[in-house]
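Final report, results section. Input specification for complex C-07:
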Amino acid sequence: MAGASSRGGAVRFEPRNPAWEERSREIFERQSFMRMIGARIARLEPGACDVALAYRDDLCQQNVYLHGGAITSIADTSCGVAASTLMPESAGVLTVEFKYNMMAPAAGEQFVARGRVVRPGRTLTVVESFVYAVKDGAESEIGRMLATMMFLEGKGDMQGTAA
Amino acid sequence: MAGASSRGGAVRFEPRNPAWEERSREIFERQSFMRMIGARIARLEPGACDVALAYRDDLCQQNVYLHGGAITSIADTSCGVAASTLMPESAGVLTVEFKYNMMAPAAGEQFVARGRVVRPGRTLTVVESFVYAVKDGAESEIGRMLATMMFLEGKGDMQGTAA
Amino acid sequence: MAGASSRGGAVRFEPRNPAWEERSREIFERQSFMRMIGARIARLEPGACDVALAYRDDLCQQNVYLHGGAITSIADTSCGVAASTLMPESAGVLTVEFKYNMMAPAAGEQFVARGRVVRPGRTLTVVESFVYAVKDGAESEIGRMLATMMFLEGKGDMQGTAA
Amino acid sequence: MAGASSRGGAVRFEPRNPAWEERSREIFERQSFMRMIGARIARLEPGACDVALAYRDDLCQQNVYLHGGAITSIADTSCGVAASTLMPESAGVLTVEFKYNMMAPAAGEQFVARGRVVRPGRTLTVVESFVYAVKDGAESEIGRMLATMMFLEGKGDMQGTAA
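Structure output:
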């Protein structure tokens, strides 16, 4: 099981899979939806994943802001990939549920969802994602997600089935 | 305020805006994200909106299923548009928050999110969306959303600002 | 695994444990918090549990209504006990998470939370609870919960450990 | 509207009501449910409220741990009271919805729910509550709540109606 150690105040998570980085990046790369909307991984560390997305006018809702669905998609992925950094080699990750509070309109040039593992577990992992809009170089928080992810054993990379 | 009347067991909602149907369709049509992923309104009645989406291989996650974000996007829109059928002419609708339980992988040829107003209100509306996958003509429930929508006065059609 | 069969429109769940009713009632009876607030099981069937609670003036919030916490406690228990009717003899049940929308103040003489299994599973079960206030014999919906419950193997009755 | 200023990294909220502390403590004191379970305010500052609760064997679930409902009750109250520190004198506060992830069993001698305003607003306030169990002097996080609170104008102290 992934352990968490505390050093200088910050919690450090220890991955169970030596090839955790390659595995997590591969999970993201296989998400055609992320590629299609133009999202990318901006940061990846044990227990943490930032997914960034540039404003595009085909990703909007009825006004000029980005659709809440585009925002929650990068938040959900940031949570799943963050959780995946701590899973065993033989497992896959899937979303059990998530809840998202939209705190401000998605207005900006760039958006970033910062997924941070709160509670690692053998089966279930609780993750929180903090979503920001970037405008003229300044960040403002636009939403927050609290999510539950699940590891499924026997659903590793090579099977190509439901992660 | 929109009223609800009961006839033969089913709750009927009464829109406050005589032009409710045109207004709600216009809200959906202005969502470029919905157009981009290929979603469409399959049903629209006071307090109810079904949003349908066909499987497409650029909307997927790391396996062959549709990305949870694509699914929750149509669920969120089904809730917002359903709520919008009951709002005053002068108002706009926005999502306060939503929670989504993924109950089965999004496997199928078509997907439909059925947004149904639970509790109409002057400011806040509670909506639930029931999401189904359609495969070989048979439907199976793949997820459920419980959401809170908000009306903002003075954000009507013509202003073109945040709804 | 508990199966679900459809007959005449309603879904019927089949318990895995022949002694399901005794097990589920025992889970409720062992909840000292339920006894302390005066709650009781009003209905128990495979996949369904109603928990009822009478108004009491030591269960209130800053006005005269029942505290949201008292209401969500019976909703949470209705979900857990409903899920428990479908679990194996060897397992225990616990709450993973829940989300509750408060739709109206908890005003009334009686309150009832109707927990209904939405999606039974081997490990996770999705349950919804519909909460009503009863006043002068008439019911009105005051809240709705969407919850995820988990079965833990090896935590059966006799061990007396975390269910 | 309550403002937030940043000084040395931490966000400071500025209350709108000069008598905010008295008002918020009064809201808590009027919650008979909090008194009945033995809860108390452990900390109160603009945008922050800690509610503490001692273990008691009539607050439990089917095992020896505190019932999730008792824990979510103090978490909900910590969110509502934290939000109330930033509301106008003329308003009252109520819970719109909350979502709670149970991350570990509620085992300990004491429990504390730390409600922290995330996003203050004119009508809606997003609050997060971090719940800990205290055992042998050491704290461990057992749950997290993400909640939406609402201010209702014209529901101030003296009316004695729904806050």
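Chain D is about 20% helix and 45% strand. Confidence is low (pLDDT under 50) at residues 156-163 of chain D. This concludes the modelling results for the funded period.
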